[in-house]
Write a structure and sequence with these properties.
204 residues, alpha/beta, Rossmann fold, 2 domains, five-stranded parallel beta sheet, 5 strands, globular
Length: 204
């Protein structure tokens, strides 16, 4: 089974692309879902996070308080590295188990949706990389509307990521999501047809 990476800039719409492809029967493994599941209540991942950062990162219902944890590691590179050392191996294991199951079911290809595929070099081990982009002014407007922030805050979040051009440079497919939903759907339909032609064996 071929694993294709799916990534993009913040507020560019990679999850929308994933949803459209999933609706056409393409299996999608979402790293964000894995990040939530590996710190679910009762998990060894949550226990490890609490052991490292203290019970203050727990909400009253004993779940992980993501906002508080984010505040704890934001701007602290060492703390962020300690958190990543806990989360990343567990997310990788969670994802690998899902890809093995999909391969056993006979799927010819699947998507791995993750924000940092290029930053961490994971795209190099994949059979292709789909990057979702949008024009800067569209990206900023969507981010402001989505998160209820002003233009300066939106730009700061965009600037904190790798430039989209660096992701596009290593992409095998690029989806420009600067337009409306129908324009996006048309591009995704074309992409799906190319993926089927490339990876679906005749008669399968």
């Amino acid at each position: 089974m071929v694993i294709l990476g799916l990534t993009g800039g913040i507020a560019c719409g990679k999850s929308a692309v994933a949803a459209l492809l999933a609706a056409q029967g393409v299996p999608v493994v979402d790293a964000d879902q894995g990040a939530r599941e590996v710190v679910a209540p009762g998990s060894d991942g949550l226990a490890a996070v609490v052991a490292e950062f203290g019970v203050a990162v727990l909400a009253p219902d004993e779940t992980l308080d993501r906002k508080r944890l984010g505040e704890r590691v934001f701007g602290d590179a060492t703390a962020r590295q300690r958190l990543n050392a806990i989360l990343h191996p567990r997310i990788a294991q969670w994802s690998a188990e899902r890809f093995l199951a999909l391969a056993a079911e006979g799927h010819p290809f699947a998507l791995y949706e993750a924000a940092l595929l290029v930053e961490n070099g994971a795209h190099r081990a994949m059979g292709g990389l789909i990057v979702v982009t949008a024009r800067p002014e569209v990206q900023s407007a969507r981010l402001m509307a989505r998160d209820g922030i002003d233009a300066a805050a939106a730009q700061a979040r965009i600037d904190a990521q790798w430039p989209l051009a660096e992701k596009v440079a290593v992409a095998t497919e690029v989806i420009d999501n600067s337009g409306d939903r129908e324009a996006l759907r048309a591009q995704v339909d074309e992409l799906h047809a190319r993926l089927v032609a490339a990876f679906l064996q005749p008669g399968s």
